[in-house]
Structures are given as C-alpha cells and as structure tokens.
Design goal:
With 866 residues, the chain is an alpha+beta fold. It contains 23 helices and 36 strands. It is globular and about 100 Å long.
Length: 866
C-alpha cells in the first residue's frame, strides 16, 4: 500500500501530529519507530530545525580566500551541504523520502518563510521529485491540526512563499559573503587578519545604533529654567507651570513653551508674580482611548522588553513554547495584528472556555474569567474591521490564546500568557473615556498652565485593573470655576538641563527596525510602515543577538550600545561609498519586495538580479577604497619597542606595530571592546604594563576590570587582580597547618603536592602558587555544595579514600532534598562525580491499587469488649 510522508520541523511536533491525526477519518494508530511514526497510510518524521545550509565558496571544507582577487562571488546556482551536527537526521529523512512505498510528501514544518525553506532545502538535497502538499497549522491544538489536515494546500500555492524563502537565504549569502570578505580584505591589507562581518539586515540595524551613539556623543547639554507657581482657590490648591503663549518651536529642537534660557528672565517672572492674584480660565474636553490592537510578534517582544526586561529572543522562545509545548497560543511568528473575518465563532468559543477557568489546578489568570464572561453576556464579540479584517491577514493572523487552559507554566511563560490573554479580552471592550482639563491661570501678562486628566469610564482599562488615571478615585486636579480668582502663595525657579537622546533598548530598537530605521510611536502608523521593516518578526531577535555576538554592540543592563568596533565599521562603509549597505530604508524596501514575492506579485529573477548587482557594487567600491587608503605613522614614542628595542611605530586603523620590518610586535588599539587612549598605549609600550583599567567587556557584554601587560613573546595579555577570597587562599599555602592530605590528581602523575584547606574550600597547592603547573582535572572541592557544608573530615575522605560518606540533606536547584556520595575522579576532565543510592523498588501496580481501595473502604467497627 502506498503511503504519504509527513515532515515536521521538530520531533515534538511530529509526536503531536501522531497523536492528533489518529482522529482523522480513515486513520489508524501510529506505531513509534524511534525516529518516526508509521501506520497503514502515513509516516511521520521531523527535521531538527535546519539540516542543510548553502555551501561556502569552493565547497564544503574549502579554505576561505580573504582577498579582492577572489571577489565578487556570484554563483548561478547555489549548492547545499549538510550541517555536520545533524547529518544523521538528514540521512534518515532522505531514506524515508526515497522509500518505494512513499508516493507523496506533506510539508508540516512551521507555517512561515523559514519553515518553508527548511523543507525545500531538504527535498532539494535529497533530490526527490514526488508530489508535495502543505499542512499549514496556525495552532497546535488537536482541533486546529485536524482542520489544517482536512484543507491541505497545493505545492503550486506554496511556490511564491518558497521563492521568497530561497531569495532571502541567497541574498543574505551574497551580501554577507561578498561584503564580509571585501571589508576583511581591506582591514587586513597591511598584514594580520581582521575579520569584518557585514550583512544585508545586520549592518543597517547596526547603523541605527551607531547613529544614536554619535548623537549622544555629540550632544552638548544646555541649562534652562522653569517657573512653577502654587495657587489657592476655594476648592483647594494646585500648581501651574509658566508658559510662553506665543511660543513657536522654529529651528531649535530643544525649545519648549515652558523653557526659559535666561535665568534673569525667570527671576523677573517670579518677582512680578509672587503673592499676586491670577484669573482662572479652563477648558474641559472629553477624550477616548481605544483598546490597543492584538499582538503580532514584534509588538509582543517590544512590550515584554518594557514590562519584564525579556530580550527579543527570550520572548520568542517563550511564545514558541506556549504555542508548541503547551498549545495555549496560536502561531507566534506573525506580522499581523488582525483575525480572519470568519473567526468570530472561534473567539466566542475561546472566551467560553475562559469563563470557568482560574481554578486551583490550572495556570489561567484568576481575574480574567469574569471579564471574558462579561464580553459574552454583553455581546461584545461581533465583526469589526479593527479586529477581524481579511485584508490585513496573510498566511498568519494575530497571536491569540487558543482557548485551551494551561495547567503548568513557569513564571516567565505565565507572564507572557497573561499579556496575550489579557490583550485578547480587552480588545473587545469599549474605549476608555477621560475628561481632559487644561487650566490657564493668568497674572497680568504671565500665563501658568495646569493639566488634569480624570478617567470617567474605564472601558478596556478595567481588564488591566485600572479604575482611575493615577490608581485611586480622587482626581489629581482640584475644581475651579472660569473667572475665579487664584491667589499665588509660592513660586520657585527650577534649573534643569537638556538630556541627550536615550540609548536604544530592545523595545525601541524593535520599533525602529519595524519602521525601517524610523522610531515610530504611533501604533497605527507603525503598523502601516511594518511592511517595509528591517527583517521579519521571526528574524529580528537573531539579528540583535548576532550583532552582540560579533561585538558590534553590547548590552548595558537594558540598553543596547554600539561598540567602537561597530562605529568603526559604519564609518568605513561610508568612507568607502557603500552607504547603501548601511541604509535601513533600502533594506526595508527589499523586505517589502520579498513580501510581494510571497503574494505572487514579484518574480524571483528580478529580485536576485538587484541583489547580485548590489553585491558587485560593494566589492568594487571596497576595492577602490582599499587601493587609496594609506598607512599613517604615529609620532615617535619616547620609549623603544618593548621587543626589539627599535624606535617608532606605524599606525593603522585598528593597531600599531613596530617600524622595524624584522620585528613582529603589534598591539590592537581596541581590547575587549575598550578603546585604549593614546596615554594608555604609551604607558603600555614604555612600561610593558598598564592598569588596572575599567570598561573591558566580555563576549556577553559584561564589564570587567584588568591590567594589560606585554609578555615575553610580545603578546598583550590580561592581568587580573585577585579577589580577597583568592588572596586568602594563596595565604593558606604559607601555613603547613592547613595541609589536609596529599593531592590524588598529582599522585597519578607521580608528583607530590598537597591539598590545602582554604576559606572557600579545599584546593591543590598547584592552583595557589604562582608559576606552578596546575593539575588536571583541577583538584578543588568547594566548602559548600547544594547548601550542605563539606567538613574537613568528609573532604579528606573524598581526596584520600576516593569518596565521602553518604551525605544527606543536599538541596537541588528545584528545592528538593536528596542524598548522595561525592566521588573523586583523578582522570578525565571532571574531578567530582555524584553517586546516588539505588532507588527503592516500586510496588506492583496491583498491590498499589489494592492499598488505595482499602483506604477508601469504610473502616470496620472495633471489636466488642469481652
């Protein structure tokens, strides 16, 4: 009998499909064959994400050529190669696709551009030509899987998306390979090797951060003054801020109606208004605030960053788990904030599930059930273009709850689920209504402005627990009548300073990427611009993480800060005339064209021709720039070369090196993302040592301090100051009374060294004495493990006898007690091995059931007294 092969993107999805599709008409139970599931009509297996990738120039294993002679690289056809770590899975899927009884294949990878690419590359590398269908799932609930299975899409329908997916992959390859190799060739032209990665989306994103960094660096603070006056009316007191009623911003970006640049002017206002009586004029206007739109991925990432400090990548991981593992959210990698027009019954069904949720055994937010019930009872769920709009839904709709009630969520998952579910309910509530008051208090020619806002009807804000603007029911502005006299009783002149623009954080950078480099605050406008954004909702988190990995930017708490390396790259690209590679607008146009291709409105060859021409332009301009760039000599230093004794150094963009052609000494100006000043470089060269210095950053963006020294081989190395604990450990070696026992690791190598008792634990002296060769594995045992103190007696048994006694009351990371022995391993890479006691044998099921039933049986009456 012929069969159909279903390929999912991950093993967990394959398992879910095997469980759900049993309910499909004519489907029999699937047998588990370890890496795939099979029944009479279907075989289900999966990839493990990407299994193949585009081959590097020259083929797999070829050594890269970092020179202009090998550029540009513009292959007519792109070859694929297996990803080494997952080649066995590729071979399995290839065998399944080529099975003689398999006459068709269903693509069940994630429903998006990347899922399409994973599948298409699999089929291409396996060289299989069998009929293809597409299982397009918006949710991982059983009902959604069965509904999608009953409406499989044709291969012809999916070709526009497949073309866009392959164009995205190939364009990234062309721009990345040619741009990176061209800039690396330029930066390595005077010797050495300085890899300089660039990318089609990564580099324009970096340009946004660099532009902000330069704005901040160039910012010159200005002092200004504000005049604040306190007034008394019949109903109470209030404060007003002086304003220039004839204010016009003109060309000064820092000017405001309330800002005064001359203190004498501010003091004069205070002098003429103090203790005077003003006249009140007041306007009150009703205002409405509509509920926010449903979430797409970028909006969800942005708000999760603002509220909880989640990175974009972390939010995507959580949303994917809620979709795939818990099945409580719909597909998260979406750029739509709307639902299909026929989705009204589905929404009502989900709301119906919520009305009784929030019990002790589930993870549903306890306060939301009543709001869902009210939405149903008051018939608030009806067709509305603000929520249900087919024109604004492509292959995916907004992220919403599925209606399935979660049972177990960790803290981060629960926070994200609450965000999505609360927004889903709130969108069906009416607008919040406010009364906005603007009060002007005039003392002759001077005007003082006071604003007030009172929440009249909470509307959708009630779902978020808000019943007033400031959290209580008391309006923040006391009442006053038009024309009422207001007595001034105090005035102060406040001195302030203009602030530079803030650094980007993940929330604001995601917004800027969505608006193709424009930081757009208005929700409706941002949505309109998102079609021309940088990257896609699914890829933006990886772009940010890639920039951090390449040390072009770093995280400083929640801020994202461009490094000197990142700034230098953008400067170089501008100097080389390759500004287009840094242009968010142009890259946003390319993303827009890829979306047009997904919709069948643009052909693949036209797009790829534009990308090929662009890659060629990058190489040509970089080659021209590199040919004209010259070396610049530093002024001679007072000191000689620390290695050869020669005098003077050559300067390059990123390093200085000895002028003596026979000497190989060089040092980079930037070390661990910190640019060394001229004075620091001079001190390093003259004394072979400088520091300690602050501001170095590791690859995770975490700051550290260290000194730098030039070693005998000419290399510049870090020198770390010992902590008080480390100093105390070193001091321990000076007292033989601290010897615990001989080191068993050193004994294996027939060396005699001792384990010493230190304040932090028990350590071999080879790790405490300078110049000693440390033993491996490192003979070190902490004084406390899993909240249990390791006594010297147990430590001695560990090192001398090879094992401690059975120690009880260890506490696991999850807070559970356990007991174990600590075993000393003198060979290999790890010293410590945990040895757990054998588990107690489980009771037979029948005996356990009998016990359970006997407990439930009524107790027998006590025997009668004799």
């Amino acid at each position: 009998m012929s069969k159909t092969l279903i390929i999912a993107e991950k093993p967990s999805v394959a398992l879910d499909l095997s469980r759900a599709l049993v309910k499909a008409p004519g489907m029999t139970k699937f047998e588990n064959n370890k890496d795939y599931y099979e029944n009479d009509t279907h075989v289900i297996s999966s990839a493990i994400g990407h299994l193949v990738e585009l081959t590097l120039p020259g083929g797999a294993g070829a050594k890269p050529k970092w020179n202009f002679e090998s550029l540009p690289i513009l292959p007519e056809k792109f070859a694929l190669q297996p990803i080494e770590d997952s080649e066995s899975r590729l071979n399995l899927l290839s065998r399944l696709m080529k099975r003689k009884d398999v006459d068709g294949i269903i693509n069940a990878c994630d429903a998006g551009r990347e899922g399409e690419l994973i599948f298409r590359y699999l089929v291409q590398v396996a060289d299989v030509h069998k009929p293809i269908k597409r299982l397009w799932m918006q949710s991982m609930t059983q009902g959604a899987i069965l509904a999608a299975f009953s409406k499989l899409r044709s291969d012809e329908d999916m070709m526009p998306l497949a073309n866009a997916a392959m164009c995205r992959s190939e364009s990234d390859w062309l721009v990345g390979i040619n741009g990176t190799r061209a800039m690396t060739a330029h930066n390595s032209r005077f010797g050495g090797f300085r890899k300089t990665p660039v990318g089609r989306v990564q580099t324009p994103t970096l340009a946004i951060l660099v532009a902000r960094e330069k704005e901040i660096a160039a910012f010159v603070p200005r002092t200004y003054f504000e005049v604040l006056a306190d007034f008394q009316v019949a109903a109470g007191e209030y404060r007003g801020r002086w304003i220039d009623e004839g204010f016009s911003k003109a060309d000064d970006p820092h000017a405001r109606a309330e800002r005064i640049w001359d203190k004498a002017v501010a003091d004069a206002i205070k002098a003429r208004c103090l203790n005077k009586t003003g006249i009140v004029s007041e306007t009150k206007k009703p205002a409405k605030q509509a509920p926010p739109l449903l979430y797409d991925l970028t909006t969800l990432q942005r708000e999760a960053s603002n509220r909880f400090g989640f990175s974009a990548r972390r939010t995507l991981q959580l949303a994917q788990a809620l979709y795939e593992k818990h099945k409580v959210l719909t597909y998260p990698r979406t750029d739509s904030r709307y639902l299909p027009e026929d989705y009204v019954p589905t929404v009502k069904a989900a709301m119906g599930q919520f009305t009784d949720a929030g019990g002790p055994d589930d993870a549903f937010p306890r306060d939301l059930g009543k709001f869902a019930k009210r939405a149903l009872d008051e018939n608030r769920i009806f067709p509305s273009k603000r929520i249900f709009d087919d024109a604004k839904v492509s292959d995916h709709f907004a992220i919403t709850p599925t209606g399935q009630i979660p049972k177990k969520l960790d803290e981060a998952e629960a926070k994200l689920y609450d965000m999505v579910t609360r927004r889903f309910i709130a969108v069906f509530y009416p607008s919040a209504e406010f009364e906005v008051t603007t009060r002007i208090t005039r003392i002759e020619k001077d005007a003082f402005k006071t604003d007030g806002k009172v929440l009249i009807v909470p509307g959708w804000l009630e779902v978020y627990g808000k019943k007033s603007v400031d959290g209580d029911e008391t309006p923040s502005l006391c009442a006053a009548k038009d024309g009422e006299s207001a007595k001034n009783y105090a005035i102060e002149v406040s001195q302030e300073t203009t602030k530079p623009p803030p650094h980007y954080n993940e929330a604001t950078l995601l917004s800027s990427m969505e608006g193709a480099g424009k930081l757009v605050d208005d929700e409706e406008l941002r949505e309109a611009m998102s079609e021309r954004g940088l990257g896609t909702p699914a890829t933006r988190s990886n772009i940010i993480e890639g920039l951090i990995y390449e040390a072009y930017i770093a995280r400083d708490q929640r801020d994202l800060v461009a490094s000197q390396k990142g700034i230098a790259l953008i400067d170089q690209l501008h100097e080389a005339g390759v500004e287009a590679l840094t242009s968010p607008e142009m890259t946003g146009q390319w993303e827009y064209k890829l979306k047009q291709m997904e919709q069948g409105k643009l052909d693949r060859p036209s797009f790829m021709k534009e990308i090929r021409d662009f890659a060629s332009t990058i190489v040509a301009k970089a080659r021209q720039y590199s040919s004209t760039a010259q070396e610049v000599l530093l002024p001679d230093y007072e000191a000689d070369c620390p290695i050869c004794g020669g005098h003077g150094f050559k300067q390059r963009e990123n390093m200085i090196s000895c002028k003596n052609p026979e000497c190989k000494f060089k040092t980079y100006k930037t070390v661990a993302m910190r640019m060394l000043s001229d004075a620091e470089l001079r001190e390093l060269l003259s004394k072979k040592f400088v520091g300690p210095l602050d501001g170095f950053k590791n690859r995770f963006g975490k700051e550290f301090s260290a000194a730098l020294e030039i070693a005998k081989d000419g290399k510049v190395a870090f020198v770390f100051t010992k902590t008080p604990e480390q100093e105390a450990a070193v001091e321990s070696v000076k007292d033989t009374a601290n010897i615990l026992c001989p080191c068993p690791v050193c004994a294996v190598g027939k060396k005699t060294n001792n384990i010493y008792i230190t304040p932090a634990g028990y350590t071999c002296e080879t790790h405490l004495k300078e110049g000693a060769k440390p033993c491996k594995p490192k003979a070190n045992l902490g004084r406390e493990l899993c909240k249990v103190e390791i006594t010297p007696e147990q430590a001695k048994k560990f090192f001398a006898e090879g094992s401690t006694d059975l120690i009880e009351k260890f506490i696991s990371k999850k807070g559970r007690p356990f007991k174990a022995k600590l075993v000393c391993m003198t060979k290999g890479t790890r010293l410590l091995k945990w040895e757990f006691p054998p588990r107690e044998a489980r009771e037979p099921a029948a005996k356990k059931a009998a016990k359970k039933s006997s407990k439930k049986a009524p107790s027998a009456p006590p025997p009668a007294a004799e």
